[in-house]
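cache lookup: miss for this entity combination. No prior model stored, computing from scratch. Input as submitted by user K.M.:
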Amino acid sequence: MITLLLRLYPARWRARYGDEFELILGDRPLGPFDVADVLLGALDAQLHLRGHGAASVHGKGFAMTLRVGGFAAILGGLLWFIVLAWNAANNGAESGAYWIGLLLLAAVVTTLVALVGLSAFQARRYPVLMWTAVAVPALGAIVTLLGAIAIVIGGDSDREVVAGFSGWAISTIGVMALLLGSGLFALATWRTRSLSRPAAALLAIGAIVVVPGLAGLSGGIVPREIAGLAVLAAVIAFPAGWAALGVSALRLDRAATARIQGATS
Amino acid sequence: MTSPIPDLGRFAEPALLILVSLSDGPKHGYAIMTDVEAGTGRPLGPGTLYAALARLEERGLIEALAPIDRRRPYRLTAVGAGVLAEQLHDLAEFAELGLKRLGRSPG
C-alpha cells in the first residue's frame, strides 16, 4: 500500500521527499485517516506543484483534520435523524421515497467522511478494527447507491429488482453495513477513549438496537411492541451518537488550538 | 493580529506547529509528527505534514540537513526563527488582550 500511495505523488516530489516519506508511512499502522490525508496530500502536490522545486507555491490545499470529521459527524447525525424519522412517518408511502433515498445517500457519504476523519487515534491501536469499520460501510454505501438508482429508475421502491430484492431492500442492506461499521467504530472509540465515551456508547446502542427493531417489524421474530420501541430508540440514539461524537471532536480540536495559543502567552 | 507566515492558507496552523516543534532543535518527520500530536492532542497526518514541510522549506523558514539512515532532519533557519518569534509574539499579545477583556490577568 505504501508503494501505491507514494506513486500518487509527482515524480519530482518523490525524488525530493520519497525516501523519508516512505519511512514515515511505515513507522506506525496506517489507518483510514492517514490514507485519506496522504491522498489529499498527493492531490495537493499534483495540482499545485509549480516551478522546479518539490514544494507547492500555493498556500491553498487539502488536509484531513479532526475538524472535517467533527463537522461531518454532526451533519451526518442530522441527516440520519431526518431520514429515519421521515421514513418512519412516511409509513411505506411512495410519495417521499425519492427524497428519502437522496437524503439517505447523503447521510451515508457524510457518515463515511466522519468515520475516516475521526478514526486517527483509534487506528493506531486497532488498525484492523478501524479498517473494517470503514470498509464495511464503504461497501454498504455502494450497495445503498445501487438501491437508490434502482428506486429512481424504477420509480417504485418496492418493485423487485434482482433476486427478489426491491430497491428499498437493497438500500436497507447497505444501511445495515453502515450500522455495523458505526458499531465497530464506537467500540474502538470506547476502548481508546480518543473521543467522548458516552457519545461512543450512544452510537453503539443506536447501532445495536436497530437490529431487533428491524427483525421484529419485518420478520415477526421480535414482538411488534418491542420492535417499535427498539426502532424508536435507534432513531434517537444513532443520530445523537454521531452528532455527540462530532461535538466531542470539535471540542478536542478547539481545546488543542487554545493550548497552542495558551502556550505562547 | 498580523500573520508573518505568508500565503500558507490551510497549512498555516500545521506550519506554526512544525516551527514550534523545531524550535528546540532539529527533528525528522516522524519526530515532528509525534511531537505535534503529543503537544496538541490532535492528529497530524503524513500528507499534511509533508505538504506543510515542503512549503516551509520553499519559503526558506526551515532547511533540511544531511540524512541519517534515510531520515532527513529539519531545522529552523534564522529567517524561520525570526518569523516564528514574531508570530508567537502576536499570538501572546492577542491572548493578553482577550484575557484583559475577560477581566483575568494573563499568566
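stored under new cache key. The two ends of chain B are 20 Å apart (CA to CA).
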